[in-house]
Amino acid sequence: MSQQKVVLLLGSNLGDQKKNIELALQKINDAGNQISQVSEFLMSDPVEFVSSNIFCNIAAIIFTHLSPIQLLDCIKKIEVEMGRINDSKVSGGYTDRVIDIDIIKYNELNFTSERLEIPHKKHLFERDFSRILLKDFI
């Protein structure tokens, strides 16, 4: 499979948020993906749940040989390795988290399954912090 251009959003609101994001990027790279571009860090309030912990977020463009589902499996493995316990798809709601990695776009693919929706419409159209981070990436 040839290289696929993917836009990711990463966020953390527990521990050293910037270091968590940097470690996640390193793990994404170590898994055989090429990180092409990374946005500035953006601090934001939690969305769709209440917490006193502020989020640190970034957007990243990567190039990958993985299919969308393979990439999802890869990033979910990284989240678990880094200590993420609750996945919002599984638990049915959002909570504080060490790391959150979302696939926003995968080339120009439109894809929907129980586990994954590409493009990620909430981040593209509903969340202010996402639109700020993605303005130069989409």
Automatic annotation (TrEMBL):
Ranges where the 7,8-dihydro-6-hydroxymethylpterin-pyrophosphokinase domain occurs: 8-135
Q: Does the keyword Kinase apply?
A: yes
Q: EC number(s) for this protein?
A: 2.7.6.3
**Is Nucleotide-binding included in the keywords of this UniProt record?**
yes
Q: In which pathway does it act?
A: Cofactor biosynthesis; tetrahydrofolate biosynthesis; 2-amino-4-hydroxy-6-hydroxymethyl-7,8-dihydropteridine diphosphate from 7,8-dihydroneopterin triphosphate: step 4/4
Query: Which SUPFAM superfamilies is this protein grouped with?
Result: 6-hydroxymethyl-7,8-dihydropterin pyrophosphokinase, HPPK
A GO molecular function term, named singly, is: kinase activity
Q: What Pfam families is this protein classified in?
A: HPPK
* CDD domains (alphabetical): HPPK
What superkingdom heads the lineage?
A: Bacteria
Concerning its family, UniProt says: Belongs to the HPPK family.
Q: Please name the NCBIfam families in this protein's record.
A: folK
State its role: Catalyzes the transfer of pyrophosphate from adenosine triphosphate (ATP) to 6-hydroxymethyl-7,8-dihydropterin, an enzymatic step in folate biosynthesis pathway.
| Protein known as | 2-amino-4-hydroxy-6-hydroxymethyldihydropteridine pyrophosphokinase
**Species name:** Chryseobacterium jejuense
What lineage is on file?
Bacteria, Pseudomonadati, Bacteroidota, Flavobacteriia, Flavobacteriales
